């Protein structure tokens, strides 16, 4: 495993490792590496399982030749200055399980070949300038545990196929332009711990199926245009410590059943059309209305 470049901060040093046939891991995060990622990175040994160049000063685009690393399991290029498109042939890296391209300046759509990476369990592309939609083929990620697409400029409806990712633990879609209703299939996310779909253009009512997320701890659906009542069944989500439904068009009364939430620390229902009394039993009696 390579973890040190002895003060050499030029990315061209990667070229010198192309003859290291037994090299399995290159972990050079936070090494102040600068320059453009050379196409020769694709000539590294095909036995390479991990390439981590995150948190450096890398510029330019992701070379197409990177897809030659067909046995790569983990690719980390996050927190650099990489621009341009996600390579359309990235799906050739069929062994990938972890893909982190977040915190760069990537643009354009998510290439369809990404959805060929059927072994993926971590997919981070947040804080870029990506556009377009999520493909119906996202259900190919049958083992996915963490998905972060926020914030970008993505604008599709939330497809029912997204809800087939039953092993998801973390879902972050905030600060995009997703439209339509929340899929009824959200109840399939029975292993979900964090869900943030705030600051989009979602509408319709909150489905009662949300209550099936019984180990969920963090729920943020704020800054959308949801209407209707707050589902009283939310009291089934006993692990919740944060509920943010602010900045919507929710109406009716605040369900008294929310008093059953023993772990709640943050409850923000502000800037809606709610009426009636504020529940104050149990844990909620420590809250001050604002």
Automatic annotation (TrEMBL):
Organism equals: Nymphaea colorata (pocket water lily)
Q: Where in the cell is it found?
A: Cell membrane
Write down what this protein is called: Leucine-rich repeat-containing N-terminal plant-type domain-containing protein
Alphabetically sorted, this entry's keywords are: Cell membrane, Glycoprotein, Leucine-rich repeat, Membrane, Repeat, Signal
- In the record, what lineage is assigned to the organism producing the protein? Eukaryota, Viridiplantae, Streptophyta, Embryophyta, Tracheophyta
The record ties this protein, via PANTHER family, to: OS05G0588300 PROTEIN, PROTEIN TOO MANY MOUTHS
Question: InterPro entries attached here?
Answer: At_inactive_RLKs, Leu-rich_rpt, LRR_dom_sf
Q: Name one GO cellular component term.
A: plasma membrane
Superkingdom in the source lineage: Eukaryota
């Amino acid at each position: 495993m390579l973890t040190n470049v002895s003060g050499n901060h030029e990315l061209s040093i990667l070229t010198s490792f192309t003859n290291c046939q037994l090299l399995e891991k290159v972990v050079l995060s936070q090494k102040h590496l600068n320059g453009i990622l050379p196409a020769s990175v694709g000539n590294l040994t095909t036995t390479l399982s991990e390439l981590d160049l995150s948190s450096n000063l890398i510029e330019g685009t992701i070379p197409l030749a990177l897809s030659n690393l067909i046995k790569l399991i983990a690719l980390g290029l996050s927190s650099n200055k990489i621009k341009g498109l996600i390579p359309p042939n990235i799906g050739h890296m069929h062994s990938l399980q972890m893909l982190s391209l977040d915190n760069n300046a990537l643009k354009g759509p998510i290439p369809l070949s990404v959805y060929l990476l059927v072994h993926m369990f971590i997919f981070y592309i947040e804080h870029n300038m990506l556009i377009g939609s999520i493909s119906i083929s996202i259900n190919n990620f049958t083992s996915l545990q963490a998905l972060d697409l926020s914030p970008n400029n993505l604008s599709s409806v939330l497809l029912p196929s997204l809800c087939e990712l039953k092993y998801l633990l973390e879902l972050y879609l905030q600060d995009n332009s997703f439209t339509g209703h929340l899929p009824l299939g959200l109840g399939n996310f029975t292993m979900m711990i964090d869900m943030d779909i705030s600051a989009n253009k979602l509408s319709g009512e909150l489905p009662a199926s949300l209550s099936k997320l019984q180990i969920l701890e963090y729920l943020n659906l704020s800054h959308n245009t949801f209407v209707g009542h707050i589902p009283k069944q939310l009291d089934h989500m006993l692990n919740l410590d944060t509920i943010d439904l602010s900045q919507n068009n929710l109406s009716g009364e605040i369900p008294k059943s929310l008093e059953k939430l023993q772990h709640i620390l943050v409850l923000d229902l502000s800037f809606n059309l709610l009426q009636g009394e504020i529940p104050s039993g149990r844990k909620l009696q420590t809250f001050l209305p604002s």
